[in-house]
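Progress against Task 2.4 (sequence-to-structure conversion) is shown through the following example record, which the project officer requested during the mid-term review.
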Amino acid sequence: MENAGELVTFRSLDSSVADECEAMTFPLFRHLLLLYPAPRYPTDGDRRNVQPIGTVAFAGNHVVGLALAAIPVDSREEAELLSLFVNPHWRQHGIASELIRRLEDELRGMGVARVEATYMTGKPSIAIVERLLAGCGWDPPVVRTVTVRFTPEEARATPWFGRKLLPRGAEVFEWARVTAEEMERLKASNDASPWIAEGLEPWAHSAMGFDAASSLGLRLGDDIAGWVINHRIWADTLRFTCSFMRADLARRAAILPLYTESIARAEAAGYRQCTFITPVKYAGMVDFVVNRCAKWVSYVGETRGVAKRL
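Structure tokens generated for the chain above:
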């Protein structure tokens, strides 16, 4: 493969070019360029190690493209394509397609049966990426989540911020005050008669840490009835990871005072950007994002997933 007479070559990623590849993947994944088994999302409290693998494109001795993937070390059935990048001066020459093809061959040779990728909409390049993957035989994209990005100032402009009172007898408290005994009672209560939406169990999202400044709970009497559990993802960026309110209180919008207080505390702690992601299966939260947030925030988009059988 050539561009303006310069030969483009491909080889498997090795740690000797990790520094040169740093600009070609997301900061979240740069630790994987050393190719040591490591958690994919360490800032989330992720403890499941993956084996990084990648394919690199070179023009002479310079890296011009990278496809980076990860395989769980405890299962080689599936891999995830984490990032794909080609230097802008080298695009539209088939390099990205060749990076994917060679990476797929490597994964297939390691016994991987399926590869998937997840990405967010909102950039002009997304349509190009989707056409590229379709041309490589990947399945059509499927919407998985709705994502919101906002500043505390934008949140204050929404019609719900600060405009809802707590239910009588309820109190907001810092999630860091939840004791091990209280968490065990929550689990036992849900085991006996499930009332927490699947995937929003607080113990799953706080066991490996959380942002203590902005993560809050709502207690009614002796019972914990709701929570907003957040995680720092960058120095000034907070992710609202898990929010839930017991059904009888959710109908009274009791989650809104928690959001208001959490955002206020996040701003006081120095956060300037916030992100909120909800899977599309939580229809009520999607409706909240679309109808009560979208007009006032910086960004609303989708997270889409694509996959291919190898």
